[in-house]
Amino acid sequence: MFPDRLIWIDAATRRDHRFLGPNDHCLYFGEFFAGCGWRAGPTNDLIIDFKRAPSVIAASPHALRVQHFKDRAVARVAGALRRQFAQTAIRAVLTFVPIPPSKIPGQPDHCDRLLHTLKLAFAGLDADIRPLLRQRASTPADHRSRGCRIRFGELLELTELDPAELKRPLRSLVVLFDDVLTSGKHLAVGRVRIREVFPEQAIIAVAIARRARPSTPVA
């Protein structure tokens, strides 16, 4: 079963994510084993469904069923998130910021699953949820890039804060939300851009899963 409690990245796990520094505070629910498919466990199963691209769903002869699996994954993550945060913190302390999708609005594979998950998780709780970060252009999705991932500097250049989301102050703690923590590049880019404008802003990160390497081959 998919874990429903957050775990802190510690000194032992931080070394798997090269863009995370000792002062970065990051939590995750489960471990994702890249390239191992659904057989690697419930977290892999959930992430595969959660990250289904719109074009992949549309091309499937079982599109409605595949969309159902994706919607179910979103609901499971939303439920897990809602159970992790006190309602007083949700209403007064936290600003939730999803990592922007690799495809900008208007592109066929644009998918705002992270934003949608946050809204579903904290519906009715006066949560501060905002797509503060955005990309100026689409980029290849890291998990589908076949090893040719965009570099940190290139991603930083393409990422900016949306001025429309700054019309009211951020709350005292920003929670960057992503699906899979790999190198930590996207979280680092988000942190840099936010602290360029708000140098003292407290920031933590929450990921649905962190990429891990299996100690034994997955059958």
Short description:
By secondary structure, this protein is α/β, with parallel strands linked by helices. The chain is 35% helix and 19% strand.
Any overview of this molecule?
The chain is of the alpha/beta class and 219 residues long. The chain has one domain (7-211). It has helices at residues 11-14, 42-50, 54-59, 63-84, 87-92, 113-121, 152-158, 185-197; strands spanning 7-8, 26-32, 94-98, 128-129, 133-135, 159-161, 173-181, 202-211. The protein has a six-stranded mixed sheet, sandwiched between helices. Strands 5-6 form a two-stranded antiparallel sheet. The protein is globular. The mean pLDDT is 93.
Overall mean pLDDT stands at: 93
Question: How helix-rich are the residues, as a percent range?
Answer: 25-40%
Unreliable stretches covering 5 or more consecutive residues: none
Number of E strands: 8
Largest sheet: 6 strands, mixed
Task: Report how far the terminal alpha carbons are from each other.
Answer: 19 Å
**Gyration radius from CA atoms, angstroms:** 17 Å
Mass-distribution shape: globular
Share of β-strand residues: 15-25%
Tally of individual domains: 1
Number of helices: 8
Order of helices and strands: EHEHHHHEHEEHEEHE
Kindly name the structural category: alpha/beta
Strand order of the largest sheet: 1-2-8-7-3-4
